[in-house]
Amino acid sequence: MTDEQGTSGAILVVGGGISGLTAALEAAEVGNDVFLVEKNAYFGGRVAQLNQYFPKLCPPSCGLEINFKRIKDNRRIRTYTMTSVTAVSGGPGNYEVTLETAPRYVNSNCTACGDCADACTDEIDNDFNFGMNKSKAAYLPHEMAFPRRYVINKDALSDEGAAAVKASCKYGAVDLDMGTDSKTITVASIIWATGWTPYDPTKMDNLKYNESDAIVTNMMIERMAAPGGPTDGAILRPGDNKEPESFAFVQCAGSRDENHLEFCSYICCMATFKQMTYIRERYPEAKIYVFYIDLRTPGKYEKFREKLMKDEHSTFIKGKVAEIIPESDGSVTVVAENAMTGEKIKQNVDLAVLATGMQPSLNVDGAPVPLDTDPSGFVNSNPETGILSAGCACRAADVVTSNQSATAAALKAIQVSRRS
Amino acid sequence: MNVQPDLDFIRYLKTAGGDTMKKCYQCATCSVMCPLSTDENPFPRQEMIWSGWGMKDKLIGDPNVFLCHQCGDCTAYCPRGAKPGDVLGAVRAYAYTALGWPTGLAKLASTAKGLPMLIAIPSVIIFVLWAISGGMVIPTSEDFAKYGYQRFFGYWDFHWLAKNVAFIDFFMLGAVGLAVVGSYKGVTNLWKQMCKREGVNPDFKPSLVQLARDFVWPSIIEIVQHNRFRECGTNRNREIGHKALMWSFIGLFIVTLWSMFANDVLGLWIPSFHGPMTIWNPVKILANVSAIAMIVGCGILWMNRSKSEAEGNITPTFYDWFLIWEIMAVAVTGILAQYLRWAGLITPGYIIYYFHLVTVMMLFMYMPYTKFAHLIYRTTAMTFERYRDSSFVKNPLDK
Predict the structure, then answer these.
(1) Would you call A341 an interface residue with chain B, using a CB distance cutoff of 8 Å?
(2) pLDDT < 50 positions in chain B
(3) In terms of CB atoms within 10 Å, which of A29, A397, B80, B294 comes out highest?
């Protein structure tokens, strides 16, 4: 049977982060047609924002690059960025899905030369860096963005900006009249790999995230430590750019908490240990205090924990930080009860890092179509209906586990295709 | 450490509002959120694990259990829904029973099952006394207007002790006496346990004067000012409710003392003191203002509790509700009896007055065992808290 797209038994993968890339590649490389759609202007998802993976401490280009290469070489994968699913109808083996692509305002003539950004006079908050710096309204999302093509935020462009950007492009790539594009595809199954969003730290009113620059999230530390980040790899206190002499890691900031995320986000303990290595590279003498309920470093990660816990300038305190007091000198005081000694600790530090957890992105933005989810918003995988989930859309997980679940989802999707 | 869990204790806590305690995973959020918990002695995290493990000996002599004002800040921020505030309330309920004397009465006052008996005891005592006093006759409306309820238990010609005074003193002073002895035993027992737990050296003891001046009195001042209630974030208007209630009790205590003095002493020479007071009598005004404050204060706490229960923030318990009902019953029957007297409705008036006597006697008699016992035990704990930090306990040269 041949359908409109010339694909048969195709698989739709929603989300182009590490899980979506893996699921798409695994399915395509055994001969299935795959649609890979990504809401952002680039593939790579959260992993692209990291400085390093744990526990091997290699950069995210390791892993992402090879996957991008595999995608470029594979004719069976059709990729769509800035695209979301808006409607799904039909049944297993024969889903009709409506996709909507937001205008990028830059067409495929773009060579990523950067002239438009140089010419652009308007600036926007850099979302990729969690707003810690600005970018031009005509921008490349990040250094190793794939596809390597600029994006224009038209709403942020002034009239002069628009004229300048248009005039600067020698290749005729800027198209400010571009509109929203909608298309319908038919697929046998759908893999939701919509990933996670860092839990909004302002929801924990006792942690006063909004009231001090000295309170940052673990994902902000990743961006600061990354070579292409807002500080070019330096870990500095936002606002006054002070080199912190002391750090507090606030574990379970929003995770394992009925009032916030009731599940364990799985990665935050390891992320903290990893970020301790970032700090040590930059500040060998800085004091580090880690406040935790339990340290959860399962399996082989135990070795990583043991190594970092030997650090002589680090202190580990069993007790959750339930209050942060912003101080007038720009520092903060974190308050916890040390459950080992039964005494309250008020520790003043230059920078407090909230180890915020993973909220399923579908639970933040809302699912575009009704989905079978658990109470926390993770999508249940169902091979019968061909509606599957992978990575952090399925459960809070690290990269390795995400890739395992992506491969599993790909296998189930292939089975649905063959069945129909 | 060898832990011997007391299963009966755990079972009791679960029925008294502590059914959530096993959810606790010891993150200590509660100890930080609690506005009353101090840096050296934070609570209620430790109390939560002792409760879960059934370590009742650690808890009964623990001042923190009584220092808790159950404002609910810990419960609001608890990541597990373990409701530390309710668990501490349950521990207090247990402690009042365990410290109570006589034990049988204390046990009776601790569960809803005992409620019929709790009402029956004063009801029967007063009814029997009323019957044998020969006062169980409906007076003429003139007499009712003149004497009010002053001849509830009848009248005799013996000048030095009016019949009504004799009967009322008999059971009310009896009930108060029992409460005073019970309170004394309970408080001294608690004090001993707290001293033992803290490892207080018995060689350095303050004199009674020192104890009263340096430790008890500042605690009472602090209680009256409601400083600790004001710290609470989650339940702010509890402070207003509790303050109104406390002042109404102080007001009515003064009224009761005056009435006792007027009836038992002044009445011997000036017979008019055996009649009801006019409405503009300052003591009467104080009584009425206090009664209204009592209803308002109790009403605020009643509504607060209902609202929190409806929102699922606290667990309804007999221990909490019994005191609210009891106080409300005292205030309502008292005001109603006065109103019926003014209205000249003799029979309903006498019946309501009977119930007023029953509720007042209940309040007195069960004070050391019900939630009302916080009056003595929290004061004791606050006193101990001061004592613990003084040089009688801490060597000022240490540290």
Answers:
(1) no
(2) none
(3) B294
Cα of A379 to nearest chain B Cα, Å:
23
Domains parsed from chain A with CATH numbers: 11-102+180-197+359-419 (3.50.50.60), 115-168 (no CATH), 200-356 (3.50.50.60)
A2: pLDDT confidence band, cut at 50, 70 and 90?
Answer: very low
Prediction ipTM score? 0.88
Question: Cis bond leading into A198, ω under 30°?
Answer: no
- Going through B37-182 in order, the beta strands assigned E by DSSP cover none
pLDDT tens digits along A66-78: 999 999 999 999 9
Cα distances (angstroms) measured from residue A213 to each of A327, A351, A391: 11, 8, 32
What the block records as the tokens of B130 is: 């009323």
pLDDT given for residue A419 in this prediction: 78
pLDDT of residue A365: 86
A337 interfaces chain B, CB cutoff of 8 Å: yes
C-alpha closest to that of B373 among B187, B237, B245: B187
Q: d(Cα A98, Cα A87) in Å, to the nearest integer?
A: 5
Q: What are phi and psi of A40, to 5 degrees?
A: -75, 175
Torsion on CA atoms B324, B326, B331, B336, rounded to nearest 10: 130
Query: What domains, with CATH codes, occur in chain B?
Result: 7-99 (1.10.1060.10), 103-388 (no CATH)
CB of B81 within 8 Å of a chain A CB? The answer is yes
B41–chain A nearest CA distance, Å: 7
* Percentage of the residues of chain A whose pLDDT score is greater than 70: 98
A257 contacts in B (CB within 8 Å)? 79-80
A4 pLDDT exceeds 80? no
> For B255-301, what is the HEC assignment?
HHHHHHHHHHHHHHHCHHHHCCCCCCCHHHHHHHHHHHHHHHHHHHH
Give yes or no for a contact between A384 and A165, defined as CB atoms under 8 angstroms apart: no
**DSSP-derived 3-state class of residue B317:** coil
pLDDT tens-digit profile of A319-344?
Answer: 999 999 999 999 999 999 999 999 99
